[in-house]
Amino acid sequence: MRNMRATDLINRLPSCFARAGAASCALGLIFALGLYASPQTAKAQDAIVTSEPTFRAEHAGKSIYNGNPVNIFLAPEIATIHSSELVAVDGSWIIEETQPWGRDVPLERGIFILKRMNPEKVGFLAALSEDSFEGGTAVRGKNYDFAHVSFSASATTTHAISFSLPYLGAAGVPSGLYGLFVAEVPATKLTSDPETGDGTTSEFTDEDMEKILAGDPSYAYVYAPIRYSFPAGFNYINDGPPPCAKDCFSNVLFLPGIESSRLYRAQVVGNEEKKLWEPGVNDELRDLWLTTEGESIRDVYTKENDVVDELPVVGKNIYKSLISKMDEMKTQEKIKDWKAIPYDWRLSLDDVLSYGNNVGGKIYYSGNNRATSTPYIIQELRRLAKNSKSKKVTVIAHSNGGLVAKRLTEILGDEASQLIDKMILVAVPQVGTPMAIAAGLHGYDQAHLGGLITDEEDARTFSSTTPMIYNLMPSAGYLAQVKDAVVKFEISLALSDWIDNYGNLIRSENELRDFLTGYFGKVDAKTGDIDQPIKMNYSMLTDAEEIHAMLDAWTPPDGISLIQIAGWGVPKTVSGITYKGKKGGGVKPEMEFTIDGDGTVVVPSALWTSASASTTNYWVDLATYNKIGNKITHHSLLDIDHGSILEVEGLEKFIADVITNSTKPLTDYEHLSNASPESVVKRLRYALHSPLTLDLYDDQGNHTGIATSTGQVEENIPGTYFVQFGDTKYIFADTGTPQHIVMSGYDTGTFTFEIGEMQGDTVVASTTFADVPVTPQTQVRFDVLSGIGSASALSVDTNGDGTVDSSYASSTGQLIVPEAPPAESTPAPSGGGGGIPSLLPQGTSTVSVVATTTSVIATTTPVVANVLQQEIATSAIPVIVDNQIKKPIQVAIKVPLKKKNNVIATSINKESKPNSQVASVAQATNGGLWLWVRHWIMNTIYSLLKL
Q1: pLDDT tens, position by position, 562-579
Q2: CA distances (Å), 860 to each of 319, 909, 934, in order?
Q3: How do beta strands 487-489 and 505-506 pair?
Q4: I need a surface site. Which of 356, 831, 903, 910 has the fewest CB within 10 A?
Q5: What SS3 class is residue 29?
Q6: Whole-prediction pTM
């Protein structure tokens, strides 16, 4: 070990300059000599400078060395630390020895000293003066501090130290030169009497060290040799406050889903602007139509922060709670800023990310004003990152916003990892979802306010020319993994031409493209029957396929953690379409449903990106959340589904904790899990194919169906969901509570009413009432006390006079068809659907019963077609007169005992519907000549039954 006194260090200055350079040597001398700048008399304490130990010190994300980490023969670099680059404002240092001290040093004698130099006294000679400390006289806690440590002669040590002098980055701390030293103080000091020369020995204390550093005149005759290491030096530049002093969490950028940004167009001079979305009338929706190339016809813009917080009329929250939570986190200074990013959701992903010109708060993604060198979304991401405490952003994306977010990272390339730390994708159709097929071809579930504002015809016309609907079509990746056919054609003579053109099962990208863009059977979007599909745009579909070829293989960029969240338990989630023959020609689409989704997006698509070290999957149990207890807790009778999933309180809390890096055990977040919930609870599915309304009431009078006051769907009974498409309506409900079905006619024809008891996606029991006559005055009632086994008879008041004209006993596993009267007494059809009016005596009905079997215990045993005479007392059911619920009545129904020889008993095996997300062997073989022949035979028998 080389030790030297101050005079020795001065003598060696020329050789230091020759070896390491003037700057490094001068600064080294400044720190070494300036540290003990008290009066230097013959009897003053000596300073002994040593080259050991060497160390690396880290503070607030910055490192300094007192030795050269590359070459020990070179002087260390003098680091520069900017206040704006620090990640914290505190006195914490982590100091790692890279070379031992040379001998053991106990805690009371080993210290680290951090000194702030006087910026005007940085010259070599000035450093030897008393005022070499910043501010003049050395004052501990103001311009220097020291902390005790111990050293080992045989090993290096890492020390965690805190200095109390004003923190770097704090307001008012000036720029200047700093030095960090290791020192070993003596155990004792020798104090000489200046008159007699006698000396006394005493313990060396921290007070002695403070007086020596402060240049106390009384210490001119104190001898206490102190060993110092070479210093680690740095220049501190105060160029503004550091990005974070507390709660160093990322800012937030939120990307909403389709139809969740309000859109406007400028009105003619002198008038106000016109809001096009949310729409007021169909004419406003037409202003949003695009050309066949996907270009906006009009100059349309959105506005800063103008995302949908709640839906008009019904008042259903969409992003209201999320907006409130983000505002709260900003107010509490947990995050510095956040931004909800509106965008023109009609356009392609690349248009959304290439344009977005902010003109006075109006943001143009299309039209003459769209061109910009700073696309709005990318500009806001960079701004939020620059202004963030962590210098990064957490991206939250809902639905289509997730596709925008994934494409954004591809466009940014390596810059994505520099700007983003986390991505939270909520209910994102990453590889599309089957509902997009139904929405694009038929306008399914796209009408607003029952068609008063937007009808299915306008909706599908609009959708067919917007790139966004094509991005949501099931992709090649989805079809390859899920394997279930997304489109099926019932094998029958009526659909033979359709099958010849498209095949009876569509389950690949090529097959889906051929069907969506083929000409056969397609109708005009605006004027054609909505039951008939329209022709989609080939160019837009192929563009979407190219996008998905990239997005399907997407993984999070390095350094970005991904959280995927899927909604589960909404049984009205479309998993595919089955087309059946329609009376009079054409097809009738019937939706296939799954519980494995949020009402719009199926789970496999929402959790598409493979789980890895940077990807975590979560499920939100919406089935449980929508129960009565939770609705009371959450002060809302409106069900949560895909559009409103961010209103789930447990999910909202989880996202906030992810942003602040403070996630708790999953048990703290209600309804959130890291495994798929189980489908253990049985449910009921009511399906009505007819010109009747379908309404469900509970014992408290709560209603699920179309509200007569607003024309909007309401689902006020907990755990229930309503879907309508044309004359087909569905209600999904939990078992276990009394339910009362009321149906009211609005046209002449016949109706088919199906009741299925479901577990998961499997029908475990079912009953079907088929071809029951209906008129505009018809009132139908049906009760289920718990499961399907407790179902009442189906009571039909044909003329709406309050008296039951016919009743059909419910029989699990049966197809129940009214028996037609003799041919000579059958009047000609009176119009509508061509149904046969009931000529049976009031209060009685003759039925034929065709066994259909349940899907759990299949049976092919013929059921006796004649029902024994019995009296069935129905439970109290509401009576509807002029659309008003009246006092419930009890109805007694008599069924004739006499056998009818003209009734044919047969059986039809109905296969269980497999889980919609699992490949089915039955589906793979659901074709061929025999199946076609079998269907033809059964359809012929069924036709004979009606003669």
Answers
A1: 999 999 999 999 999 999
A2: 52, 7, 15
A3: antiparallel
A4: 831
A5: helix
A6: 0.67
